[in-house]
Design goal:
eight-stranded mixed β-sheet, about 25% helix, 5 helices, about 270 residues, alpha/beta, about 10% strand
């Protein structure tokens, strides 16, 4: 009871009795029992002051455009990461390092157009991946091969380009049908004649015209660089060989150039004595 004898001491006691906020919880977020809700707070990047015991992280409806290298602090216990309805355009190959326990990742309703095949390598425990409603036209299946525990994949409502370039993805989807969710919404956008055609309805015969040895973009760039140099080298070589041939023909027309001086002098002496 001595705590209440003086006003200053009483104030100190009240401060001690007041429940303190989590020291690692971002000011704009709500943290409770391992769940951190940072949605709808106009974040432009992932907050770094997150509790180390975070198991669920809500980051939807913000303005995050890029996930750079190591965008997240070490969160060894994070199981669910939700990033829908941001403006996400790019995910660095090292952005998800340290999230090896993650089981569910929601990247839906963003602006993703391409994914690095190494993006999901750290997520060895991921079971559910949602990339629906983005701007994906193609997807390297190498990004999916890196997920050994994957059980549910959502790719609906993307502007898929149904050309020969989608063949590797179609093969992965065909071999993993049980993992693909919302199959009926996995539709082609381009070309026009295949608009809204279900990708899962393709068969091997649909890709008959696609050669297995099709060249990649790197090969075409190499040809564009090497081609002009080869052309100039061939012109130089032809010009050089042509010059040699012209000189040779000129020498053949004037055979005296090939005669040795001694023979010429002997012949000239005979003519003088005559």
């Amino acid at each position: 009871m001595g705590c209440w004898r003086r006003p200053s001491t009483m104030l100190a006691c009240l401060l001690l009795l007041r429940p303190l906020p989590s020291p690692a919880c971002p000011a704009a977020c709500r943290c409770s029992s391992g769940e951190v809700d940072c949605s709808q707070h106009a974040f432009r990047k992932v907050p770094q002051s997150l509790p180390t015991n975070t198991s669920t992280l809500w980051l939807g409806y913000n303005f995050i455009t890029v996930l750079g290298p190591r965008s997240f602090p070490p969160l060894p216990g994070l199981l669910l990461l939700s990033l829908p309805h941001n403006r996400l355009e790019l995910i660095h190959s090292q952005a998800l390092v340290g999230l090896q326990s993650l089981q569910e990742l929601d990247l839906s309703n963003n602006y993703l157009t391409v994914l690095n095949p190494e993006t999901f390598l750290p997520l060895t425990s991921l079971a559910t991946l949602n990339m629906g409603s983005n701007r994906l036209g193609e997807l390297d299946p190498g990004a999916l091969h890196a997920l050994p525990q994957l059980q549910a994949l959502l790719l609906q409502d993307n502007p898929w380009v149904c050309s020969c370039g989608i063949l590797p993805l179609w093969r992965w989807l065909s071999h993993n049908r049980e993992k693909v969710q919302e199959k009926s919404l996995l539709l082609c956008r381009v070309p026009e004649q295949l608009n809204k055609y279900p990708i899962m309805a393709f068969r091997n015969e649909s890709f008959r015209q696609c050669q297995e040895t099709s060249l990649s973009a790197k090969h075409y760039i190499a040809f564009l660089i090497i081609g002009p140099f080869s052309f100039m080298a061939s012109i130089f070589f032809c010009t050089f060989m042509g010059s040699i041939i012209v000189v040779y023909h000129n020498l053949c027309r004037e055979p005296h150039f090939w005669r040795r001086p001694g023979i010429c002098r002997r012949r000239c002496g005979r003519v003088t004595r005559l």
